[in-house]
TrEMBL record:
Its EC number is 6.1.1.19. It comes from Seonamhaeicola sediminis. The keyword Ligase applies. The gene is argS. GO terms for biological process: arginyl-tRNA aminoacylation. One of its GO terms (cellular component) is cytoplasm. Keywords: Aminoacyl-tRNA synthetase, ATP-binding, Cytoplasm, Ligase, Nucleotide-binding, Protein biosynthesis. It is found in: Cytoplasm. Monomer. This is Arginine--tRNA ligase. It catalyses: tRNA(Arg) + L-arginine + ATP = L-arginyl-tRNA(Arg) + AMP + diphosphate. A motif ('HIGH' region) lies at residues 123-133. The keyword Cytoplasm applies.
Amino acid sequence: MSLQETLSNQVKQAVLASFSVEIESVEFQATRKEFAGDITVVVFPMLRYVKGNPVVIGETIGNYLVDNVNDVKAFNVVKGFLNIEISDSYYLSFFNRIKDNHAYGFVNSNPNEKAIMVEYSSPNTNKPLHLGHIRNNLLGYSVAEILKAAGKKVYKTQIINDRGIHICKSMLAWKLFGNGETPESTGLKGDKLVGNYYVKFDQEYKKEIENLVAEGKTLDEAKKEAPILLEAQEMLRKWEAGDEEIVSLWKTMNGWVYDGFNETYTNLGVDFDTLYYESNTYLLGKEFVAEGLKSGVFHTEKDGSVWCDLTDAGLDKKIVQRADGTAVYMTQDIGTAIQRIKDFPDVGGMVYTVGNEQDYHFQVLFLILKKLGFDWAKNLYHLSYGMVDLPSGKMKSREGTVVDADDLIDEMAATAEEISNELGKLEGYTEVEKKALYKTIGLGALKYYILKVDPKKRILFDPKESIDFQGNTGPFIQYTYARIQSILRKANLDASVTLSAVEVSLHIKEKELLKQLQLFPEVIQNAAAQHSPALIANYTYDLVKEFNSFYQNVSILGADNKDEKIFRVQLSRVVANTIKNAFRVLGIKVPERM
């Protein structure tokens, strides 16, 4: 039980004993720096129940707590704020409970609880992953890991968009202009090779439009009648009809892309438990259109198309099946969601990591699934996130102006190398060790810079700024972790010794650090509830700032006596472990030396 929970019960008891009144809740806040105290009770909300002077009420409660609660050693009242001082023994008791728990902050999963499926990445197989995909992957992976840390069973998944006109554009351009080249013959990653042909298609398409306009066509007519587009549309029709040659080319080129994607995922440090492919799911959902018609959830228009009227929920009418009987994306998403529950019966909820331009789509999807009577639909969540911008402007895949994910990862490592060399901190490292460290620092900088921002906010990503070794950055936190490891190596002390309050009197900086450590389990739970890695990232930065203040004000290895030294070394070790655990759920590695 946390200090706040314990004190809440005691304050309620104090009010009952002193004023014969029951209060529903107790409001706490951090004690302001200029006053003595570890936690503050706000008295003003109690005036609804207890009539009188807030200072007198605060003093009455304070006296009760000092007399009846062992861990409360003193108090002071400033206007309507009761500042409570907690005994050192309370903090040492807490510390002794957690100091050997390497999984501190994490909760074991409950086998009786339903699992959660987290979907992220879900790229198109016509181009490599780019900076926007990186934010998606980092968010989805981290939220999955946070949910696990909070005690949930989690499946990570993605749906790969491997069919449609955009895929055929790459295929057709390769067929027309590729001269049989392959990833092996060019030395290019497969996703990059296929992406080049997506760009090539767009270039040729634009040329044809210009020619048609020059011949007297309107721009709209030219866009629809360009021969290369008509040929791509014909290729899609052949694919849907199962044409052997087209399907074979589709499998080959998609295979190149999957190999490329897997290499990027490995470099980025994300993984998946299961994969879904749009080519297998695009016909799903049609059976539920029939069921929805029977139950009255859907209705048929005069032209034969099927719709769902959501105006009673403040939304509009949504088509779920065209007049010719073909499905739309919404139908497919309905079918895929239901299929996942069939495949994983222990799943009771899903998180969809998709950009905020799809907010309305997911509102509609979740509401339709509820109307169809699926109980688990109330546990669906759209992890909506803002776009990532660069100082140079917006990215466009068709024009080849995207920031390629692999290039960015390499650039981050190169920037880390440049800054590390300037700082001159790597004497005694082999070249192999240096390269591994540059990648750890570069990726840590990239991940932290993206994850420290609330998912809903748009990001302006600046690679140089992200690798700063000072401030709220990944490298700053990694450097603090490495500094603590250096202290532990020098100390070489037995970590298992348990110290009592009699043996150690806490310095104010030690107490502040322990208070920050106490928050970690709650931060994990809040981050899971809010699907926000930013809460963990910014908590870790606060913890590191608190440690650095402790480090600058308190001598660790030069402590006055052995007990103090043991305690401070152990405290440093717990801080390092907490940093490591926090960064683990963000998907960030911490170096032992730096």
